[in-house]
Amino acid sequence: MTITCLNHQRSHEFICYQCNSLMCSKCISGHSKDHPDHSDQFEHIDDIKDSLSTLKLDDIIDTTVKNENDYSKNNSDSNSNNFSQINNKLKSLWESLRSSTSRYQRLSTTENEIKEHFEQLHQYLIREEHKLQRDIINDKHTITNQIDNNINHLKYLINIIMLFNKFNSSNDSNNDDKNKDSYSSNSVSTIEDTTSLYSTTTIMESIQSSSSLQSFINHSNQTLFNEHLDAFNIEELLEQHSNDTTSLLLDIIHKYNNQFNKLADAITENNNLTLSSYKLTIKQPDFNQLNSIIEQSIKLDIIESTESMNTKKQ
Ligand SMILES: [Zn+2]
Ligand SMILES: [Zn+2]
Description:
Layout: E1 14-16, E2 21-23, H1 25-34, E3 42-44, H2 45-53, H3 68-80, H4 85-173, H5 176-185, H6 191-197, H7 200-209, H8 213-219, H9 234-240, H10 245-274, H11 287-297
Antiparallel strand pairs: 1-2, 1-3
Bound molecules: zinc ion (2 copies).
One zinc ion binds next to helix 1.
């Protein structure tokens, strides 16, 4: 864009905001005749400079009062003063920003009120869900305990059987000392440690997929029924029993009875008392009914807009 007017060879001095064109002093008089409605839309550069030099951003304040009429009145007031269009634009941008922000905040408030209302319903549903689940969860817990106890029980018995088999085979080969060494060599873990290796959930999966006790034991032979783990501290026991394996076996079985019989009775009794059968009946909820309950408790109406977004006015 050249700085001089091509038609009149004069410097540009005016801008018509409506046409967004630069004009010299000669152009502008013609423009006023051709477009009388643009007469308040153009400005001389001196007026713009004046206005910018006296511009105080402090004075750009939001004078819109809640309703639209006041806004337009204020706007025309500013036009009648000798403010540049730039001042007016600044003011209107600022007012638009203010109004958008407060509108946005009012929307957020409403949005939150809706959220809080439904939060009550969510909480109510969660409580109802938990109420129904409570007995089931308690029973599952009881069963888990029962399984854990029975697995310990079983593990002890299987260990006794494995021990018996070892004693038998070592008697056959008459090689007590060699076998004695093999027991102690791998005695790293106790029964409790191996139990924690496998969760009850995993154990149940294994039980379900095993058709016989033997296949369950085979399935768990690296963990629950690991024959290399010395469950009884055999070396010490053999010493106590002066290498008499029969006496040792009897001792272990006696300990087994002490440890588990009372416990097992208590569990069986307890289970019979607390475990119930349940029949669950499920019907698709009547969502129409639910809808009407919700509609009665909360409603969002679009009321006629009292303030337009200011973007179009600029
Ligand atoms: Zn114009
Ligand atoms: Zn010109």
